[in-house]
Design goal:
Elements: E1 7-11, E2 32-33, E3 36-37, H1 38-48, E4 53-58, H2 63-68, H3 73-81, H4 85-94, E5 101-105, H5 112-117, H6 120-123, E6 128-131, E7 135-139, H7 147-158, E8 161-167, E9 177-185, E10 188-196, E11 207-215, H8 219-225, H9 236-244, E12 249-253, E13 256-260, H10 264-276, H11 282-294
Parallel strand pairs: 1-4, 1-6, 4-5, 8-12
Antiparallel strand pairs: 2-3, 6-11, 7-13, 8-11, 9-10, 10-12
Bound molecules: uridine 5'-triphosphate.
Amino acid sequence: MNKSIRKAVFPVAGLGTRFLPATKSIPKEMLTVVDRPILQHVVDEAHEAGIEHCVFVTGRNKAVIEDHFDTAYELEDVLLKRGKTQERQALLADLPKPGSMSFTRQQAPLGLGHAVWCARDIIGDEPFAVVLPDMLTMACGPKKERCLAQCVAAYEKHGGNIIAVEEVPPAETHKYGVVSVGKTYGDTFEITGMVEKPPQGSAPSNLIISGRYILSPEIFPILEKVAKGAGGEIQLTDAMKALAARQAFHGVRFDGSTYDCGSRLGFLGANVAFALANPDVAGEFRALLKSLVGKL
Ligand code: UTP
């Protein structure tokens, strides 16, 4: 039987340069989509997938992330005294179970692969998930699973390592990690190759690595030795390629939508999509959106 996936790594040490000046003093993961920080949305997704322990790889100027997942005594007290019971309950409901979050630092932004390697001691010798907080996923219906739950289900069925993928127009593939597709079973397929940011026109498919992974701990000694790759950074894709020589990798086509909140357009799209799906604001927001669209 496959070992269960209990822990997830959230690499949040990047500088978010595509979002300056917003990210000069605020971590990009703390920008809000509707009324929750991006990071809270992805932690919710991880909990839905059965993750019990979240490991954040942080960096300088990211201390506010740790505070977000802690109790806010003065605020809770004021809400109680003012009779704002619902708001207080909502805050308390989001509080993680004590001891279910760990924080470690990546002292320099040397790349995603290096950030994941920084979590090695906390993960230990068990398979784990990696969740890129930039990528916000939305299930295609209220009863459907979000992306990480779909990856965990594929892992339970097929074992090995799992990568969530998403289709993009062929002209866009040079910006991402791209996979080659082997034998297919429903929404899952064997990955026969991977390449990080292939030159335009040379990508093996239009399926990009979209920010949710299940990896075996054998990735850590590989990450320790892997040379700097695209962009002068230690790339997770390069280490996964080396691991793929020894272990199976499966791709999962996510049955839903993904928004790249690391880019301004993706972030704006996520706000529109999540607002339309949020019963508190959807009605009024739809009317506002219609009036704005009418002016185009
Ligand atoms: P990105 O490359 O999208 O994030 O990395 P970035 O570097 O913050 O963004 P830009 O390009 O400068 O705008 C994807 C994820 O990996 C994390 C980022 O925080 C982000 O969540 N990351 C990236 C690290 O934790 N460490 C790194 O060295 C690089």
